[in-house]
Amino acid sequence: MSTTTETRPRRALPPLMGLSDAAAERLRGLYATGEAGKTLRVAVKTKGCSGMAYDLTWVDGPGPGDEVVTDKGVTVVVDRKATLFLIGTVMDYEVKAMSAGFTFTNPNEKGRCGCGESFHV
User: Residue ranges per domain, the chain?
Assistant: First the structure.
């Protein structure tokens, strides 16, 4: 009796993270001025009433194990421990009447706290 094993084509993984046009434009401006020479690092920290929160810091470059994501010609660094929580996430930059900042559309989120500060997966 002979068996044949067919190798199934691997399904392409979704991108780790993407940037909206607004986020890419804002980062280009920050990289060219006040944060020249730095790179934005995205991490997820244990925080808030839902358990997790996005953490953005400026770093000189990727650390050991960090993932480098380039989208729309702009590079951000992602903490390796955050990768499973961020797969498929799109970072945006929103300007509202009383605030402006980076926001995240994360398909892995199962809910957010009432104030919007934290999320859970």
Answer: 21-111
At 53, the amino acid letter reads A
The model's pLDDT over 13-56, given as tens digits with 9 standing for 90+, comes to 667 899 999 999 999 999 999 888 899 999 988 765 657 788 89
Which pTM value belongs to this model? 0.78
Contact between residue 68 and residue 77 where contact means Cβ atoms under 8 Å apart: yes
Long-range contacts of 67-73 (CB under 8 A, 24+ apart): 67/16, 69/15, 69/16, 69/17, 69/18, 71/15, 71/17, 71/18, 71/19, 71/24, 72/19, 72/21, 72/24, 73/24, 73/28
Is domain 21-111 annotated with CATH 2.60.300.12? yes
Per-residue model confidence as pLDDT tens digits over 77-119: 999 988 888 888 999 999 988 888 898 888 877 666 555 565 5
Match 């691997």 to its residue by tokens: 10
Which token pair is 96?
A: 């509202």
The residue among 10, 19, 5 whose CA lies nearest residue 75 is: 19
